[in-house]
Write a structure and sequence with these properties.
Elements lengths: L14 H4 E3 L5 H7 L5 E7 L4 H16 L4 E7 L4 H6 L7 E6 L2 E7 L4 H32 L3 H14 L4 H13 L3 H8 L10 H16 L5 H10 L4 H13 L3 H15 L2 H17 L4 H14 L2
Parallel strand pairs: 1-3, 2-3
Antiparallel strand pairs: 2-4, 4-5
């Protein structure tokens, strides 16, 4: 799915397509098919209906003002009763909003311009939110598959539209982390609004940043391994060694050591080993093989 979806879709629709009359025969083409790419309002009306005559001009004015983001299709139910019967239209006028071939919402009776705009805006905002979620999912998948460049381009495109989108900021920060640019990742995280600090994507990249900072520290693994060789019950040495291993992407070995601490003394340091494992899982992500296996083994230990 391309990012252009966020920009409103059918802005280049010909003016003649914005407002039109339809028939039973053309309903699928004019409404069901058209609604795959743009929001379509269907005005079910009749010539004898006074409120219909009041509402239709207002509808046309409002729809034209959206510059192609929404279309209006009018159906005279006296001349073409079949569709209205199928949709169980019982009052006129009834306005149904179609998206992706189905009715999303509707209202009945004449409404002021402000209410019609609020009705359209609510549906468009829902469309944008759904499209945005799909776009972000595409970027996440690209990143999971190792296509950092594509993921970064998608996250950056989202940020051009919504500068403080927490998921996109966190995603782009992860892209920088993948390339070793810790400073740029930290800069992006600092732009995330405080109210979004606890969003899962943000928590994940913060955990990954912490591991990246650890990787930049002096490698003390030989010293820690020597301490463990002398005393296998040295939980602090084993814990520190796990952190050092994880910081250098030796995930399986890091998990082994922390699980060993949990096995020997799960309450040690206020369950420090378990909490560190959870931080690792957050940093690596739920789909990482080390996360999946580590969670399975941790659960087996805790509930055995």
């Amino acid at each position: 799915m391309e990012f252009e979806m966020l920009k409103g879709g059918a802005g280049d629709a010909a003016n003649s397509e914005l407002v039109k009359d339809t028939t039973t025969a053309n309903f699928v083409k004019d409404v069901v098919e058209a609604s795959q790419s743009v929001l379509v309002l269907v005005d079910f009306w009749a010539a004898w209906c006074g409120p219909c005559k009041q509402l239709t001009p207002v509808l046309e004015k409002v729809v034209k003002s959206y510059g192609g983001k929404v279309r209006l299709v009018k159906l005279n139910v006296d001349e073409h009763p079949a569709v209205a019967g199928q949709l169980r239209i019982q009052s006129l006028p009834t306005i149904c909003a179609f998206r992706d071939g189905r009715v999303l919402d509707a209202f009945m009776g004449a409404q002021p311009e402000s209410e019609i705009r609020a009705f359209i805006d609510r549906i468009i905002s829902q469309d944008v939110a759904q499209d945005l979620a799909s776009v972000l999912a595409t970027a996440e998948q690209a990143l999971e598959e190792g296509d950092v460049q594509t993921a970064a381009e998608i996250f950056a495109a989202v940020l051009q539209e919504e500068k403080q989108n927490a998921a996109a900021l966190a995603g782009l920060a992860r892209c920088y982390l993948q390339t070793g640019d810790v400073a740029r990742a930290e800069q992006l995280i600092s732009l995330i609004p405080p109210q979004d600090a606890n969003v899962a994507a943000v928590e994940r990249v913060k955990a990954a940043l912490e591991l990246a900072r650890m990787a930049g520290q002096e490698d003390n693994r030989p010293e820690l391994e020597a301490r463990l060789a002398a005393n296998p019950a040295d939980h602090q040495a084993r814990f520190d060694l796990a952190v050092a291993l994880a910081a250098r992407n030796m995930k399986a070995e890091a998990v082994d050591h922390l699980l060993e601490v949990v096995r020997r003394d799960r309450k040690w340091n206020d369950e420090g080993a378990r909490k560190q494992l959870v931080q690792f899982f957050d940093a690596w992500g739920p789909k990482d093989a080390a996360t999946i296996e580590g969670r399975r083994r941790l659960s087996s230990l805790l509930f055995s």
